[in-house]
Write a structure and sequence with these properties.
CATH topology of chain A: Rossmann fold
Strand order of the largest sheet of chain B: 2-1-4-3
Order of helices and strands of chain B: HHEEHEEHHHEHHEEHEEEH
Structural class of chain B: alpha+beta
Number of strands of chain A: 9
Order of helices and strands of chain A: EHEEEEHEEEHEH
Helix content of chain B: 55-70%
Strand content of chain A: 15-25%
Radius of gyration of chain A: 15 Å
Strand order of the largest sheet of chain A: 1-8-7-6-5-3-4
CATH architecture of chain A: 3-Layer(aba) Sandwich
Shape of chain A: globular
Largest sheet of chain A: 7 strands, mixed
Number of helices of chain A: 4
CATH superfamily of the largest domain in chain B: Reverse transcriptase/Diguanylate cyclase domain
Distance between the termini of chain B: 70 Å
Low-confidence stretches of chain A: 1-8
Shape of chain B: rod-shaped
Structural class of chain A: alpha/beta
CATH topology of the largest domain in chain B: Alpha-Beta Plaits
Oligomer: heterodimer
Number of domains of chain B: 3
Radius of gyration of chain B: 56 Å
Largest sheet of chain B: 4 strands, antiparallel
Helix content of chain A: 10-25%
CATH architecture of the largest domain in chain B: 2-Layer Sandwich
CATH class of chain A: Alpha Beta
């Protein structure tokens, strides 16, 4: 059997002015669904850092395993120590690097909203196109992190694994 | 004569072959049908489990794709799991029953359509598996199987069964031929012997022993029957000879009687006609026989006749024959190649042999003499009746001459 060629995940975006935000929320939801922390979290702290353009609907996320999601917006990246998940917007490169260095090895899943090349070291990078939302996976970051991502998700990322 | 032909009657070999073929046909069909049916049932069971496994695997595989709302990835996942697994169609529907994605096996051909139809017959309802995420059912996945594997199994089963049948038919023919050689071979020998006995009267023929108990018993009984038949036939022959002897011999003198004389005469005429050589007959009448009979009794007459017959026989050459025609009348047939001189010399020799007196039982001895008359074929006559009359007349002439001289 020939190895199947996976298209990158193409989450079609709906219509409406906030469709980007809705897509980002759904994508974040799906990523959190397949994320396993070393200790099961009844309450997942989702922290939004930096300037996030599409984070408006993250509060509506609810996980299917019953865990609640608490969204907090942190103006200061240094205060992200209590977070289980980071939704990273635009921010200074130095701050970004510092933030991700701190997150590396910790039980934190990192999602970058504005890193199309996925070079910052975030585990997931959202890719916005006019019709669809896509994501790319930084396999190095995923493998260093102590949170586990369901391997089935890896195959959905842009480029695939 | 030939044996009655019966072309419509089946031979033993045909009967044996038919019985064997039916038997083996039945056995092969029974075994084949049973095996195929059991195989289909087992394979159907395995295929059903395989479908369920495919359904579970596919539902697990496509779970993230459904959550990420990526139907292309879902379809790829299904293809990866279902391709080549005897799956014809996979459908994923959401909880409201709307079709989310569908995968159809790509190789669509006549065979695939046939397999799809057979699959519908084998699995009227598809396997349905919920796609779960955590505790929630996010979609339902239905898997429709095809009958490719079972169809191939059935096909190969039928082909193998047919091949077995072919082999079996050949084997039965060989078996029947061998059986025929063993069974009908000895029977045919018995039939041949019976035929030879009936047509050629070969009562000395016997059937060789056979290797089969029943046939051997039959052969031995048949041989015993032939023994009896041979003895019976031999007895009949000797009785016939005896009867023939009685019918053609004069019991008193042992010479041939009139009937034999006439038969021999006809044979001599025929032989003379064929070879062109003549023969002669001599009539002989005992002189004064009536006086001997009357004066010395019938025993004396009989002794006289016996002695005369013996003297006639002694006087004859090889090939010549003597007969007693009745009473005191005798006849001789001299073998072919005779001239008048030879016949006259022979007649003279007979006359001479009669000169010795004959001893009667009473102790008396009497003198006997014969009156001889002869005729030569074909010089005197070429007609047997005429020839006899000629000889008869000659004999009476001789008797008359004798009376004239003695009286």
């Amino acid at each position: 059997m020939a190895a199947p060629v996976f298209q990158p995940a193409m989450m079609p975006l709906g219509s409406g002015p906030d469709r980007m935000a809705a897509g980002a929320a759904r994508m974040t939801d799906a990523i959190l669904e397949f994320t396993r922390w070393p200790v099961e979290k009844p309450l997942v702290h989702l922290c939004v850092v930096g300037v996030a353009d599409h984070a408006g609907q993250l509060d509506e996320i609810s996980l299917s395993n019953g865990a609640r999601v608490q969204v907090s917006r942190l103006p200061d990246p240094g205060a992200a120590t209590q977070c289980d998940a980071l939704y990273i917007g635009r921010m200074a490169a130095l701050d970004n690097r510092r933030l991700l260095t701190a997150a590396r090895g910790a039980a934190v899943v990192t999602i970058a909203e504005a890193d199309a090349d996925c070079r910052s070291g975030a585990m997931f990078c959202l890719l916005f196109t006019p019709q669809a939302l896509n994501f790319q996976l930084n396999i190095d970051a995923v493998s260093r992190s102590s949170v586990r991502i369901d391997p089935r998700v890896l195959r959905l990322s842009k480029g695939g694994y | 004569m030939t044996r009655p032909a019966a072309p419509l009657m089946p031979t033993l070999r045909q009967i044996l072959a038919r019985v064997h073929t039916r038997l083996i046909l039945f056995a092969v069909l029974m075994a084949g049908v049973t095996l195929i049916a059991a195989g289909v049932l087992i394979m159907r069971d395995y295929a059903e489990r395989n479908l369920a496994l495919v359904a579970r695997t596919a539902s697990y595989t496509i779970e993230p794709a459904l959550l990420f709302d990526d139907m292309a990835a879902a379809q790829d996942g299904i293809a990866m799991v279902a391709n080549g697994q005897g799956v014809r169609l996979v459908e994923v529907r959401d909880n409201q029953g709307r079709l989310m994605t569908r995968w159809i096996r790509p190789d669509a051909g006549a065979m695939a359509r046939l397999e799809a139809t057979a699959g519908k017959l084998l699995w009227p309802s598809p396997v349905t598996e919920p796609v779960r995420h955590g505790r929630d059912v996010i979609a339902r996945l239905t898997v429709h199987g095809d009958a490719g594997a079972i169809g191939r199994y059935l096909l190969s089963g039928v082909v193998i069964a047919l091949a077995c049948l072919g082999l079996t038919v050949i084997a039965t023919q060989i078996l029947a031929r061998r059986l025929q050689k063993d069974v009908t071979g000895p029977l045919a020998q018995i039939a041949d012997v019976a035929h030879a006995v009936r047509v050629e009267r070969r009562f000395d023929m016997r059937v060789p022993s056979a290797d089969i108990a029943e046939v051997d018993q039959l052969a031995r009984d048949f041989n015993a029957l032939l023994d009896e038949l041979q003895q019976w036939h031999a007895g009949l022959l000797s009785e016939n000879r005896q009867l023939e002897h009685q019918a053609t011999r004069d019991p008193l003198t042992g010479l041939g009687n009139r009937a034999m004389f006439e038969r021999q005469l006809a044979a001599s005429v025929e032989a003379a006609e064929q070879t062109g050589q003549g023969f002669a007959i001599i009539y002989a009448d005992v002189n004064r026989f009536k006086q001997v009979n009357d004066g010395h009794g019938h025993d004396a007459g009989d002794v006289m006749l016996i002695v005369i017959a013996a003297r006639l026989r002694a006087a004859l050459r090889t090939g010549d024959l003597a007969f007693r025609l009745g009473g005191d009348e005798f006849a001789l047939i001299l073998a072919s190649d005779t001239t008048r001189e030879v016949v006259e010399a022979l007649a003279a020799r007979i006359d001479t042999s009669m000169e010795q007196p004959i001893m009667l039982p009473s102790g008396q001895s009497i003198q006997s003499s014969l009156s001889l008359g002869w005729a030569l074929y074909p010089q005197d006559s070429a007609d047997p009746r005429d020839l006899l009359r000629h000889a008869d007349a000659a004999m009476y002439a001789a008797k008359g001459r004798r009376h004239a001289t003695t009286d």
